[in-house]
Automatic annotation (TrEMBL):
High-level lineage: Bacteria, Pseudomonadati, Pseudomonadota, Gammaproteobacteria, Pseudomonadales
Source species: Pseudomonas zeae
Root EC class: hydrolase
The family this protein is said to belong to: Belongs to the type-I restriction system S methylase family.
One MF term in the entry's GO annotations: endonuclease activity
Cited CDD domains: RMtype1_S_Csp16704I_TRD2-CR2_like
Keywords per UniProt: DNA-binding, Endonuclease, Hydrolase, Nuclease, Restriction system
Designated name of the protein: Restriction endonuclease subunit S
Length: 572
């Protein structure tokens, strides 16, 4: 532990806890154990620092017949197995399972909120302490031996309040920054929409008059791939979309027949498709949909590689630099411009353009626009999986402006995307810093930096009888006195815990003495005068009495019987 400010001391968790109580799980073989109304907390309920409820509920009988304990509301509960580093405080009484421990703090020495923040700050250290082959855990001895910095109680209260404010501010800023990536995504979509509607270049067209492409005047190419249709019906979903009068709609089939698209093809299907065992560390990148990023780049480095006989067996799908890659299966709609020779899988299609008439950069924009996506969405809605086969791609309509306007559109989109990309990088860097800030703030707090000015301004609140060392010394003396006195004249009473004895209820030790023999938990509940349908508050009073009596040595817990019940007896 780093050097502490004057007046601070180092203590162990065992020093500042009056007791640490574990739990257990009622038998799931007993019908009805999990059909009650008593909250039963496990690691799965610790997703937030202030859980509002538990997924499981148990009965009074299940609680009494198991090693679980009912923990009072407001008590810190930590994971010692499976979720190391987690700590929660519930505002309701709850039973706990064997993976959790309830820490009953000495409130004269340690402030609960201060303790909770400190415990969160050492989460990584707790994980590192864990041992176990499949599930990591720490022992009670390890938990008690963990050291923590302890300032005066008044300073703890100030630190906890300061941390609450600072962490809330960090959280608020992070929430606002977290919204920015979705705003950037919407901005990019609006840029695509403006680009393919003509709005982005509306003013440019006024001073740059061009003629529309006359597709019917272009000669047909001698040959196209098999399956390209001669005619395609114009889809109704595009009927009402307005376009500039120099732009034309055309299906991919017609663009292929007129030589505007030089080729459109996916990868090898069937027997020619490489087997997993045929991929190697070197060779031609084999591009899957997963290798095409949302932002339009291709991950050649991590793509599978293919060479040798497996490569020689392939017949189609060889993509050239400049091809526009479209993912059409599994993840549909990602688009990138290829920069290296590669081969495609059946998940990806390349579009090879005649750049004198159709810019590949403009096509990259169009394939990501709403005017193309409404067509692909229509196809996907008619299938049980995301898939746009080549035959369907032949029938998708493309919006073609004159070539100079295509180039102008591409230039303007590139400019706007450069700005958004730079902004995204800054946001990403800001988020990385913000994600580190809570931990660094906690570290500063427990090194004394956050409260340095407060200590200087309030010397009387951190010295003398108010000092941490004085409070801890007094507490240790009181704890020793309690341990030496079986009658426990200074013990923590139920009245002090807000759980008074009900009329007709007697002490656990008195009930065992009167019985003259060991009793099971269920029998002891009845012998002490608790009703069989006791509510959570009454059960908490019962368990608190058992815990205190065990700590004082007034009673002992016997080995569990064949039915897994706890038995109790008077100490000899």
């Amino acid at each position: 532990m780093s050097e502490l400010p004057g007046g601070w001391i180092t203590a162990t968790l065992g020093d500042v806890a009056e007791s640490i109580l574990g739990g257990g799980t009622p038998s799931k073989n007993v019908a009805g154990n999990f059909s009650g109304d008593i909250p039963f907390m496990t690691v799965k309920d610790m997703k937030t620092s202030r859980p509002s409820d538990t997924q499981d509920k148990i009965t009074n009988e299940a609680l009494l017949s198991s090693s679980s304990n009912l923990i009072p509301a407001g008590t810190p509960i930590v994971c010692t197995r499976m979720g190391l580093g987690k700590i929660v405080v519930a505002d309701f009484h709850t039973a706990i399972n064997q993976d959790l421990k309830a820490i009953f703090l000495n409130q004269d020495v340690i402030h609960r909120d201060y303790f909770e923040y400190w415990y969160r700050s050492i989460a990584k250290e707790l994980v590192a302490m864990g041992t176990g082959t499949t599930v990591k855990g720490i022992t009670l001895k390890q938990l008690k031996s963990i050291e923590l910095p302890v300032p005066a109680l008044n300073e703890q209260i100030y630190i906890a309040s300061k941390l609450e404010d600072l962490l809330a501010q960090i959280g608020s800023i992070k929430s606002r920054i977290d919204e920015l990536p979705s705003l950037i995504k919407r901005f990019r979509q609006s840029v695509f929409a403006a680009a393919v509607s003509g709005r982005l270049t509306a003013e440019w067209r006024l001073s740059n008059l061009e003629q529309a492409i006359e597709l019917d005047e272009l000669c047909d190419v001698p040959k196209t791939r098999r399956g390209v249709p001669d005619t395609v019906k114009f889809p109704e979903i595009l009927d009402e979309l307005e376009i500039p009068n120099t732009w034309v709609w055309a299906p991919a089939a017609k663009l292929l027949k007129k030589g505007i698209l030089l080729d459109l093809k996916d990868g090898n299907h069937g027997a020619n498709h490489p087997k997993t065992s045929e991929f190697s560390a070197e060779g031609l990148p084999f591009i899957t949909a997963a290798n095409v990023s949302r932002l339009g780049s291709i991950d050649y480095l991590n793509a599978p590689k293919i060479s040798g006989d497996a490569l020689a067996r392939l017949r189609v799908g060889f993509s050239e630099p400049g091809d526009v890659i479209f993912t059409h299966k599994g993840t549909v709609g990602r688009v990138a411009i290829n920069t290296k020779e590669c081969v495609l899988t059946p998940q990806t299609t390349y579009y090879r353009t005649n750049k004198k008439i159709l810019s590949n950069e403009y096509l990259w924009i169009f394939l990501q626009s709403d005017r193309f996506q409404i067509q692909t969405n229509e196809i996907k809605s008619q299938t049980t999986r995301d898939f746009i086969p080549i035959t369907a791609q032949y029938e998708l309509f493309h919006l073609i402006p004159p070539i100079q306007e295509q180039l102008e559109i591409a230039k303007r989109v590139e400019f706007l995307f450069t700005i958004s990309n730079e902004l995204e990088i800054r946001i990403d860097n800001a988020l990385k810093l913000l994600n580190k800030l809570p931990h660094s703030t906690l570290s500063k707090a427990f090194q004394g930096h956050l409260s340095a000015d407060w200590r200087t301004a309030n010397p009387s609140l951190v010295s003398g009888d108010n000092s941490a060392s004085s409070l801890l010394s007094k507490s240790k003396g009181q704890t020793l006195t309690r341990a030496q006195s079986i009658n426990g004249t200074e013990k923590i009473s139920k009245q002090a815990k807000g759980l008074p004895m009900a009329k007709g209820i007697i002490k656990i030790s008195a009930a065992l003495e009167a019985a003259g023999k060991p009793l099971s938990g269920q029998e002891l509940l009845e012998a002490a005068g608790y009703p069989s349908d006791s509510g959570i508050d009454s059960l908490e009073s019962f368990f608190l009495d058992i815990r205190e009596s065990l700590e004082e040595g007034a009673i002992i817990k016997l080995p569990r019987d064949e039915d897994s019940q706890d038995w109790f007896a008077i100490s000899k």
